[in-house]
Amino acid sequence: MKNVSVSAPAVQKKTFADRVRLEIRTSGALYIMALPVILYYLLFRYIPMFGTVMAFQKFNIAKGIFGSPWIGFDNFITFFNSYYFVRLLRNTVLISLTDLVFNFPAPIIFALLLNEVNNRWFKKTVQTISYMPYFVSIVVLCGLVIDFCQAGGVISNAFSLLFGESVNLMSKPEYFRTIFVGSNIWQGLGYGSIVYIAALTSVDQELYEAAVIDGAGRWKQTIHITIPSIMPTIIILLILRMGSILDVGYEKVMLLYNPATYETADVISTFVYRKGFVDYDYSYSTAVGLFNSVINLCLLTLTNYVSRRAGEISLF
Amino acid sequence: MKAKRILTALLAAGLVVSALASCNQNSGTESNSAAESQTQANTSGETAEVSTAEGETVTQLTEIPLPIVEEKITLSYWFPWDATVSNVVTNNNEVMSVQKMEEITNIHIDYIHPTIGQEKELFSVLLSSGDLPDMMYLANGVEYPGGIVTGISDGMFLNINDLVNQYAPNFSKWRQYDEVHQKETISDDGYILGFPMMNDIPEGANLGLCVRQDYLDQLGMEAPHTLDEVHDVLSAAKNELGLASPLLLTSNGVFYDSALLSAFGVGREWYQNDGTVFFGPMQEGYKEYLTMMNQWYNEGLIDPNFVSNAFTDAPTNDLLVSDDVMMTETYWGRVVDAMVYNGVTQNEDFWLTPISAPVQKEGDTVGIRMYNSPIMSQTVLTKDCSDPVVATMWLDYQYTEDAMILNNYGVEGETFYYDDNGDFQFTDLIMNNPDGYNTTDANRLYIRRNGSGWIKWERQQLTNPTVAHKDEVWAYDIWSADGTEWVVPAVTMNTEESAEYQSLYADIKTYVEESTVGMIMGTMPLDQFDAYVEQLKAMGIERVIEIEQTALDRYYAR
Fold it and tell me: Which of A34, A209, B200, B319 is the most buried (most CB within 10 A)?
């Protein structure tokens, strides 16, 4: 709309149709390009939201959403009273927080380190190799992790050299988070650093020249120029990451956990999966999913608020 | 959060089509009387006046007319299958015996095969789409939420009682074969569930314990029969042969057929004693089992990786042939030297001897083993079935002798011939395939095998071309020698019961699994067993037992 008023300030009282026409003439191509994305969000993100009413129903697949009886908050009450509620919530939050604390800074540090490398060939090689695990299928990746960590595996053997007996690390609840987050870092490090490397290339080189004249070493340059320059990128990604703090994907957990590690590994999304697809309890599973989303939304809003207040960088 | 995304996508689908579903709602329960529906069936078949159980007289076909329809029609059939088939064909219609079936019946079956491993999810999606194929084969773990009876009362599946009475003479005959067939083809309230894959007698135990004979010979020991002997054999394997994981256990801590646990008079999950249902994991015998396994685990006799091997029935081939295993469970096709001649292992001495479930002392017996009902996966007709009469007749044809031969042995002269004794023999097309397929693949390429209809497992297994020598079948005799009197048969529950059962039992099952492996590995002390039983009670196990008991009572009252 801004374009309209700027490009035609002299013309007053345009009708809505006129404005639409003008808009299409000036930036029609942009609208066409945006259309698939808008449709995607409508179809796969907004329309499905109506389905969450199922959380308040005793859903029957034959009767559908319009025919199933309403039961109010029963599903939520059942979940909150469930034997596993506390454990699921605790595991989800802990896995997610551990992942955030270790996995969020890792690509940033990696990008900063790469940025200091002057040998172009070496830099590209390291970058390419670090992307590779990202393209390995999650099933294969988890198979590798299990093989490495089982008794007789590479990591388990290294572990036994340090601490004595050879053990199956996959059966130890206390190591599940470490294995989960560690393998996440291994897989996502290179790919996650792309956006930071891109941000780093746009840092004004004159700033560095000025800093060198002022006598700043590499370390000082990093602290006072590089990091502040990519701070907005970091903050935005952090806010987005906070919005998915309870989103621990079920695939990887399911591939890695076993009855011995349920204690620390069973999370809300695996519970939802089992309820929905194994026990066909759609309503209950939707209720738990909805609970998860509401918490996520609150966290996202909170982080955004804090960030806006503190650093004047925010999503909305 | 993928789970939620998939769910919400499902919901969207459900939303869009629920309007459609409501239009069709009546078709399920009311208009399924066969007489009302329009059918293109060939009417030349023999009929007879027959009295039904309710005392009415109906006209019943006595033989399926061939071809079933004058003018070729197509029926769609949702059909989960297994990887051995999908390795060689992309659709059942490429299979020679299926093409022959189409020729005979004049009905083209449009087979829809869900992706292997995603059957349950795809089934849910299909149900919520509201537009169902004519027939659905509920196999590979696919089941309607709440059971087939709930599906019928929800109006998704047809009530086929009248159809079967009038148009399914062969199936009706087989249903009366014996008490088990009569009981397990109907629900408690008298609905015929569907058209199952059916045996005349239950298949024998196809899974059981086995032990490495070559290692026993090295040790100079006999195959063990009591728990003490098992312990001696495993200890010797550990200490004298240096095996890293003498006993390869399932990831939930109990063998699928309850072997080892059954020595303490307890079943893995549900078992019965003269009609009274018991829940195994809360019995005193279960504690004794855990105590023993904990001791074995501490002695290093159990695979330290058992929880993360992630199998609950039989280990994968590569685990099975790892020369670190003395004893485990497996399916019959892998015993003796099957792993050698199938090229899975290079160890020429590899030999697995099947053994029966161990007992506490010589002379004891166990009453539970691997048990398969003669009534297996069902085919149901759906609310959208375009011609229920023709579909019924086509399915009924699968229970004839001709169709049994076609489905199990293929086309005479092409895939098999009768030898001088009148026995089935496969031709070179199967045994020495000119296109270079091995016998398993050739078998799948030309012969349908699994699916609704009458199959004879004995003949199917005995003539299985992949069996290089008949010793493998010996495993059936060994494993089937144990009793089945503790086995709880296939009970059915009504909608409310099954919803309550599901919601209580899902959490209980998780708790039992993690406590079981915890007590075996020692991470949960054994003296907490009583507290664990109390916790099961707090989670509602007594109510679940009550539901299971009433369902069993109804089963016997059918």
Answer: B319
Three-state DSSP state, B352: strand
Chain A nearest-CA distance from B96, in A, is: 35
Q: Which of B118, B79, B123 is nearest to B98 (CA)?
A: B79
Interface with chain B: mutation pick from A137, A245, A258, highest number of B CBs within 10 Å: A258
B173 and B229 share one domain: no
Q: Find, among A296, A235, A306, A266, the residue nearest to A94 by Cα.
A: A266
The reply to whether B214 falls in a domain is yes
Looking up tokens 């990093």 gives A222
Chain A interface includes B502 (CB < 8 A): yes
Residue of B nearest to A245 (CA): B1
Query: Does residue B26 form part of some domain?
Result: no
CATH number for the domain whose boundaries are A82-311: 1.10.3720.10
Whether B106 contacts chain A with CB within 8 A: no
Q: What is the pLDDT of residue A10?
A: 52
Q: Do B94 and B226 fall into the same domain?
A: no
Amino acid at B144: Y
Of A47, A49, A250, the CB nearest to B2: A250
Output B318-324 pairs: Cβ under 8 A, ≥24 positions apart.
B318/B344, B319/B248, B320/B248, B320/B344, B320/B352, B321/B345, B321/B347, B321/B350, B322/B245, B323/B243, B323/B347, B324/B243, B324/B244, B324/B245
Residue B119 lies in a domain: yes
Looking at the structure, do residues B354 and B498 belong to the same domain, yes or no?
Answer: yes
Same domain, B212 and B314: yes
Minimal CA separation from A33 to chain B, in Å: 24
**What residues of A are in contact with residue B539 (Cβ under 8 Å)?**
83
ipTM here: 0.78
Q: How many CB atoms lie within 10 A of CB B365?
A: 12
Average pLDDT over residues B514-532: 92
Same domain, B238 and B317: yes
User: Mutation test of the interface with chain A: which of B129, B305, B524, choosing the one with the most A Cβ atoms within 10 A?
Assistant: B305
Cα(B548)–Cα(B280) distance, integer angstroms: 13
pLDDT one-digit tens code per residue, B129-175: 878 999 999 988 888 887 888 888 888 899 999 999 888 989 988 88
Domain that holds residue B342: 207-370+491-557
Last residue within a domain, chosen from B459, B480, B509: B459
CA distance B152 to chain A (A): 10
B181 and B296 housed in the same domain:
no
Size of the A and B interface in Cβ pairs below 8 Å: 168
Are residues B324 and B403 located together in one domain of the fold? no
Closest alpha carbon to B187 in B484, B397, B497, B455: B497
Size of chain B in residues: 558
Residues of chain A found within 8 Å of residue B503, distances taken between Cβ atoms: 78, 279, 281, 284
Please check whether residue B32 lies inside any domain of the structure. no
Going by the DSSP 8-state scheme, the letter that residue A175 receives in this structure is G
A273-289: pLDDT as tens digits: 888 777 777 888 888 88
Residue A87 contacts B, CB cutoff 8 Å: no
- List, as ranges, residues 134-193 from B with C-beta within 8 Å of A: 145-146, 151, 154-156
Give the model confidence (pLDDT) of A43-75 as tens digits. Answer: 988 888 888 888 888 887 777 778 888 888 888
Instruction: Give yes or no: residues B398 and B294 share one domain.
Output: no
Interface of A with B in 226-265 (CB under 8 A): 244, 247, 249-251, 258-263
Domain count, chain B: 2
How far does B194 lie from chain A, in Å, by closest CA?
19
Q: Is B531 on the interface with A (CB under 8 A)?
A: no
Give the separation between CA A261 and CA B517, rounded to whole angstroms.
10
Q: Calculate the CA B223 to chain-centre distance.
A: 29
Q: Residue B495's domain is classified under what CATH number?
A: 3.40.190.10
Could you tell me the residue ranges of all domains in chain A?
A: 2-56, 82-311
